[in-house]
Design goal:
about 150 residues; elongated
């Protein structure tokens, strides 16, 4: 039996398949994606600050500039330590880079009011139009029942 050009590439069970099966690759990628989604929130470590509690707390997940003052009066810009005298320049640079003019100020409840005002003054000197004070929502108080219950 002679092979013709038309019969080339055909074996006993039909033509050879040259497609790559990507299903195992997709399975591995999805497993890795799930692992990273679960572990990513655990990798962020912020500055340890006890925020004052208020009745109306707000959370926002948009990109923002955050200036923090911890209980040792150390100043941070977006979780990076910064000298108070250099805060204005660094804040100007970050505001120009990100295009954000709203700055959030987080301060530990143990920080003296005067220190918070000095940091706020530096923020205003940097050209921030609005400064937001970050607080933590206070737990709701339950009111007890009056009189004898059943």
């Amino acid at each position: 039996m002679a092979m013709t050009a038309r019969d080339r590439g055909r074996g006993r069970f039909g033509p050879a398949l040259s497609d790559i099966n990507v299903t195992p690759l997709v399975d591995v990628v999805l497993v890795l994606l799930i692992i990273f989604m679960v572990t990513a929130p655990m990798m962020t470590r912020g500055i340890d600050i006890r925020l004052p509690k208020t009745e109306s707390g707000s959370d926002s997940t948009e990109e923002r500039l955050v200036v923090s003052v911890d209980r040792d009066n150390a100043v941070y810009l977006n979780d990076r330590p910064v000298n108070l005298h250099l805060l204005t320049d660094r804040l100007k640079t970050e505001m120009e880079r990100s295009g954000v003019d709203f700055v959030f100020l987080r301060a530990d409840q143990e920080v003296p009011y005067g220190r918070v005002m000095v940091v706020m003054d530096q923020i205003k000197k940097a050209g921030a139009d609005r400064v937001g004070m970050v607080t933590q929502a206070a737990p709701l108080k339950r009111e007890g029942r009056k009189g004898g219950g059943r």
